């Protein structure tokens, strides 16, 4: 791939353009909002000038509802040798293209499983997709050359290619992305009119649960409108679990010992099923999750604190597998939780204490 055209310079399109440009691909940028394309170009994602002729690959980064129309227009004008889209749903756009009677041998639907709460070109980064799954949905009609171009795109973005059927993909993202987003929003909505005293008690748990609720509602309306059936089916199952959980909690309020035992068993059931589901979430590098120990360090809110901790851990020969930061409400301090292999805990603890860090249990 030597040339590419990115149609849609939001977060995903601009991030892909930045990655391609860094790998030496000449990238042309276009958007329904020319100012957005100019912003992406100013960030080094490519040029907003139109290509002189067909490019090797056209990447459509439009909302799901508009993907088919943008692709049909690009294919009708012969803008590229191959075409991909990066919409978060795959079955609907392909069926719409088929209904338009287009030759789809030059097209393959794709979906990078990466994003941020922020949108637009200013939120883009060249490493947005690094190490993340990038789904490809080829069919028997897909030309081998186009599949190879899509694989090259994934490679340039340092993502991990995953081949799936389009409808299977849509059911999967409903489970791991679309439904969780709505649940996060439902939980966050409880905070809107909550008392200030209650909100001030927010800790890392509520921050983790509600983080993705900060995303742009307009973008998510487009996404959910393109995949409503599978998401509704999953939410119906969640609703059943919620009804059962509410009944179990009400039973715990009963003066009848048998009902309280029944309620306790119901709560234990949902919690254990939650445990069983959580351990299936892939861990580092996509492997099965591993159990790490936590070394908690109290830090001041000053520049360079995190860098010092990581440097001290490195000098002790300890690899930090993951890190979380819990901010102290109303204070210029925080608790850094370093996740490490269990055998590394004594080494790291001794090294950090020796260097003057305040550790917490």
From TrEMBL:
Pathway: Amino-acid biosynthesis; L-tyrosine biosynthesis; (4-hydroxyphenyl)pyruvate from prephenate (NAD(+) route): step 1/1
Pfam family, one: PDH_C
All residue ranges annotated as the Prephenate/arogenate dehydrogenase domain in the record: 1-283
UniProt GO MF annotations: NAD+ binding; prephenate dehydrogenase (NAD+) activity; prephenate dehydrogenase (NADP+) activity
Gene Ontology BP, a term: tyrosine biosynthetic process
ACT domain ranges (all copies): 294-361
Span of the signal peptide: 1-19
Enzyme class label: oxidoreductase
Keyword Signal in annotation: yes
EC number: 1.3.1.12
InterPro entries in alphabetical order: 6-PGluconate_DH-like_C_sf, ACT-like_dom_sf, ACT_dom, NAD(P)-bd_dom_sf, PDH_C, PDH_N, Preph/Arog_dehydrog, Prephen_DH
Reaction(s) catalysed by this chain's protein: prephenate + NAD(+) = 3-(4-hydroxyphenyl)pyruvate + CO2 + NADH
Domain of life: Bacteria
Keyword annotations from UniProtKB, A to Z: Amino-acid biosynthesis, Aromatic amino acid biosynthesis, NAD, Oxidoreductase, Signal, Tyrosine biosynthesis
Family: Belongs to the prephenate/arogenate dehydrogenase family.
Protein name: Prephenate dehydrogenase
């Amino acid at each position: 791939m030597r040339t590419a055209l990115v149609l849609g310079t939001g977060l995903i399109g601009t991030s892909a353009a930045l990655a391609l440009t860094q790998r030496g691909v000449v990238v042309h940028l276009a958007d329904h909002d020319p100012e957005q394309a100019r912003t992406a170009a100013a960030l080094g994602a490519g040029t907003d000038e139109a290509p002189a002729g067909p490019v090797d690959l056209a990447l459509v980064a439009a909302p799901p509802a508009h993907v088919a129309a943008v692709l049909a227009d690009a294919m009708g004008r012969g803008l590229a040798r191959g075409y991909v889209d990066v919409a978060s749903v795959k079955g609907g756009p392909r069926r719409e293209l088929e209904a338009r009677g287009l030759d789809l041998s030059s097209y393959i639907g794709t979906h990078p499983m990466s994003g941020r709460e922020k949108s637009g070109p200013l939120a883009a980064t060249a490493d947005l997709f690094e190490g993340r799954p990038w789904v490809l949905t080829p069919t028997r009609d897909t030309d081998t050359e186009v599949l190879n171009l899509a694989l090259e795109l994934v490679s340039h973005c340092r993502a991990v290619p995953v081949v799936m059927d389009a409808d299977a993909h849509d059911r999967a993202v409903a489970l791991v992305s679309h439904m969780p987003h709505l649940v996060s929003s439902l939980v966050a909505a409880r905070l809107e009119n909550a008392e200030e005293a209650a909100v001030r008690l927010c800790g890392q748990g509520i921050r983790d649960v509600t983080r993705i609720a900060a995303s742009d509602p307009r973008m998510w309306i487009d996404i959910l409108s393109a995949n409503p059936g599978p998401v509704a089916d999953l939410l119906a199952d969640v609703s059943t679990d919620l009804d059962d959980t509410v009944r179990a909690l009400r039973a715990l309020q009963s003066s009848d010992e048998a009902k309280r035992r029944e309620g306790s068993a119901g709560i234990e059931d949902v919690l254990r099923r939650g445990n069983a589901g959580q351990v299936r979430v892939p861990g580092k590098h996509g492997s099965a999750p591993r159990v790490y120990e936590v070394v908690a360090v109290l830090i001041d809110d000053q520049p360079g604190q995190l860098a010092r901790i990581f440097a001290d851990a490195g000098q002790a020969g300890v690899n930090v597998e993951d890190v979380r930061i819990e901010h102290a409400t109303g204070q210029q301090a925080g608790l850094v939780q370093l996740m490490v292999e269990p055998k590394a805990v004594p080494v790291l603890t001794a090294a950090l204490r020796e260097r003057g860090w305040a550790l917490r249990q």
